[in-house]
Amino acid sequence: MKLVIVESPTKAKTIAKFLAKGYKVESSYGHIRDLPRSKLGIDVEHGFLPQYVTPLKNRPVLKTLKAAVEKSDSVILATDEDREGEAIAWHLLKALKLEENEKPYERIVFHEITESAIKNAIEHPRALDQSMVDAQQARRVLDRIVGYKLSPFLWKKVAKGLSAGRVQSVAVRLIVEREEEIRKFKPEEYWTVEVDFVSDDKPFTATLTHESGEQLDKFAINNEARAKEVADDLKNANFKILKVEKKTLKKNPPTPFTTSTLQQEAAKRLGYSSKKTMFIAQQLYEVGLITYTRTDSVNLSRESLATAKKYLGENFAPEYGADAPRIFKTKSKVAQEAHEAVRPTNVFNHPDNLEITGTAERKLYKLIWQRFLASQMPQATLDLTSIDIEAASGKTYTLRATGGILKFDGYLKIWPQKFQERELPNLDESSKLDVKEVKPLQHFTEPPPRYTEASLIKALEGFGIGRPSTYAPTISVIQNRNYVKKETGKFSPTEIGEMVNKVLTENFPEVVDIGFTAKMEDSLDEVANGREAWQDLIGAFYAPFDKNLQIKYEEVKKTVVAERTDILCEKCGKHMIIKFGRFGKFLACEGFPECKSTKQLQKEPPKSTGLKCPECKEGEIVERRVSKGRVRGKLFWGCSRYPKCKHATWEDPTKPDSKNLPEQIGESKTEPDGEVKEVANEELTENNS
């Protein structure tokens, strides 16, 4: 009998369906070994060797696997094909003592869980890739050193319970710096002038672009007086058409999904967090519906291209399949995870016909299915028209009207995108123009937008920070550690997040430096490609880092000094002091550690919306924030009579399109100030985490 080991029970169940009776499939439930939680677990004096242990929770799994190995003739390590999967296979090799006991073993990889892919992988095993294992070890060791060395420094100099991370700290820095830009931003006024015309009973609008032959920049008209002066000139002007230009624009279809673009589109189109997207995508992969989910590549297999062309030919008009197959080449210099884009394993598995129980799973699968199919469809064709109009009134002005209509939808038939069609009347130089209205319009520049999950992932990818497998956990951890908060889908730093960022940027600039972190990722790629030794990479980082850390322990004073208050401790009568913790400020007895009494700072009363509660008809709807759990800090709206009335909703009732608060958060526990402690409705929690 041959024993096949994978890392997921769902994956094991799917693979078992494709194998004959001579195979047994077991799961390792992820990593079987890891670094110890109670100490650094790295021998810095002897080549930074990791001191791996089998966690207590994994020991029953290891026992089961050892028993299965004894009963088998050989072992097949079939974990994922990226660095993490290669490392899991290596840990299994060591923990099960396959080499030591001279048990025959093979390593197989595949990027989709289908019968043909599994059988092909078994027929073509390969050696374990030690360079990929070393790259994963290097990342793990680097992150452990930064986390375990810097976190105690933050505890001593800022507040207990804080942590630092190599990639997470850079992500926090991006969010903090964007917030600083927003605070420093000063809006600038500018004006545009539009003229509404009618020609042959067809209205259209043109915008002022030139004055006396000079093109007007954005701030050329920067006050109301100047805008009205121009508008008055135009009201008395004679208009004539200078030029009508028509051209055709072709829009290329999108590339198939990489991990990053999948997370970005799922956030924009479905409102899913990156963590939720990757969790669902992994489920779809393990049941054999999509290819491997962690990839930088937009490459597609020949088989998938042929199947897509066949599907288009059978289900669409001939013109929609004419350009297939369409081949994409990966531009990213760091593409190294899997070798194919995220796509359906079989495009004939239509989203509407699959036996998928979850709505979220169906939606994500449909997104992947549509994107893959769209990538194989023709360009969309748009007919664009621009009309230049001259206005003579003492001065000479030029206005331009632009419009466009969709001539052929192409890939847009299955991958809709926002496009506002604007049809202009069919004019020429002799056409008569009637002025309906001249409109001076005031505008103000806007600050840079806060990061969303999609734009933060795009920024991290653009800077070369992290890799496909790191985006979701990075974004999750900076929220869980209360360094940033997400409101209405946008990130802003918390007070403690800004404080930690300030300490790190001032004292450990290399840890939060964008260029340095990106260079480190390149070095990890060199390790994965066998061109650099992982111990050399760690050594080059550790020596200056550790030296600087010892200096900073002496130089840096505690950032937050406890502030004494007039509030007396209810237990011992001593004064309470304001302290800073992971979740912000709180009151603690100055008699600590003898007296461990703490309490929350008095909060401002909840902000009222002025709306009556639709459930009890007595209380008012007020703004509140979740104070515990996965969505800590998230804004919601609830009844002021809580806990007597438990009506609550994620939906802002003050918006014009509000549905009158139809959703309930459910049973919750409360503190005296009425702050909700737990969110019981799992659907609301998942959709907004």
Summarize this structure as a short list of keywords or feature phrases.
single chain, 689 residues, alpha+beta, Rossmann fold, Topoisomerase I, domain 2, Topoisomerase I, domain 3, 6 domains, seven-stranded antiparallel β-sheet, four-stranded parallel β-sheet, 35% helix, disordered C terminus
Describe the structure.
The chain is α+β, with helices and mostly antiparallel strands and 689 residues long. The chain has 6 domains: 2-128, Rossmann fold, CATH 3.40.50; 138-184 and 450-555, Topoisomerase I, domain 2, CATH 1.10.460.10; 189-252 and 380-444, Topoisomerase I, domain 3 (Distorted Sandwich), CATH 2.70.20; 262-375, Orthogonal Bundle (Topoisomerase I, domain 4); 563-599, no CATH class; 607-689, no CATH class. The protein is 35% helix and 21% strand. The chain has 18 helices and 23 strands. The strands form 6 sheets. Strands 7, 8, 9, 10, 11, 12 and 13 form a 7-stranded antiparallel β-sheet that branches. The chain has a 4-stranded parallel β-sheet with strand order 2-1-5-6, with helices on both faces. Strand 16 (563-568) and strand 17 form a beta hairpin. Helix 3 (83-95) packs across helix 5 (130-157), helix 6 crosses helix 13 (471-480) and helix 8 packs antiparallel against helix 12 (453-463). The longest helix has 28 residues, at 130-157. The protein is globular. Mean pLDDT is 88; it is low at 333-338 and 657-689.
